[in-house]
Write a structure and sequence with these properties.
Layout (H helix, E strand, L loop, with lengths): L8 E5 L6 E5 L2 E5 L53 E2 L2 E2 L21
Antiparallel strand pairs: 1-2, 2-3, 4-5
């Protein structure tokens, strides 16, 4: 294996300087100059906050848990295709209500 030491950090770069990895005491920066980063691993754990400046795509499903009391907070709009369920009840565009009557009364809960 290779061990490298630097006074304030270490930079690993390609011969033509088109991508580099910089390690310092404040963090790790991976600059691929527009290229792609692929991580092949069974599971990846991140401890701390995660900020993504771009689109997140889950090609095999998407699951989020945790937060304050298990609550997911979203700022902005949510657009979906498919069925939205809450506690086993369809609350999407195709849901129906019982107890619908003309006038100013309220309907029953979603069926």
């Amino acid at each position: 294996y290779l061990v490298m030491y630097g006074l304030t950090g270490v930079e690993i770069t390609t011969k033509n300087f088109d991508c580099k990895i910089t390690l310092t005491s404040s963090g790790i920066v991976i600059d691929l100059n527009g290229g792609n980063l692929t991580v092949n691993n069974g599971n990846t754990t991140m401890n701390g906050n995660l900020t993504v400046n771009g689109l997140i795509t889950g090609t095999n499903g998407f699951a989020i848990s945790g937060g304050s009391g298990g609550t997911m907070n979203v700022t902005g709009n949510i657009a979906t295709t498919g069925t939205i369920t809450n506690n086993g009840k369809n609350i999407g565009s195709t849901h129906t209500h019982s107890g619908v009557q003309p006038g100013s009364g309220n309907t029953g809960v979603p069926n």
